[in-house]
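check this:
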Amino acid sequence: MEKTLNRIHPVSDPEATYFLQVSWERDLGTGFGIMLSDGQCAWSGTVSEAEISREAADMEMNREKYVEELKKALIAGEESAGKYNFAIS
């Protein structure tokens, strides 16, 4: 299993720091686990392969392109800093 951990500062609260951990088996496109923590509380969930396909279709985006964008936003870290915004609600 592969994992990444990134520090994010959401646009909804730029002074706050959150930690985003993403874990996956073979490929992000086959589904992944996600955990978000503010250092005091943590929230976790999973995203299935079917949910990824459904979201790509809803956005009228090629599935492979959608998975590449997910990788950039969720696991690329410093490479994508400033290119993606996160909002916590």
User: Anything to note?
Assistant: Residues 2-80 form a domain with the Dna Repair Protein Xrcc4; Chain: A, domain 1 fold (CATH 2.170.210.10). The helical segments are 49-58, 63-74. Residues 63-74 form the longest helix (12 residues). The chain has one domain: 2-80.
